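Request: Could I get any protein with tokenized structure?
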Amino acid sequence: MKKRKSVVVIAAILALAVLLTPVRVNLKDGGSVRYKSLAYEVTKIHRLSPAIDGVKPYIDGIEVKIFGITVYRKTN
């Protein structure tokens, strides 16, 4: 019984490691970076936008998705 329990614990740890290990992806929109894993996705937004009346030409912010559902998004 102890052997089976240890196998289950090791399998759970390996599954969590696969689900939570992110891969960095650089987006070609002006400098945004996306960290993506199977369970979540975090995007640091730094997107080039057209300049209007001397306003900052970049959109900066962050977006967090868990299992594909956006839970947080803040841009300026």
The longest helix spans residues 2-20.
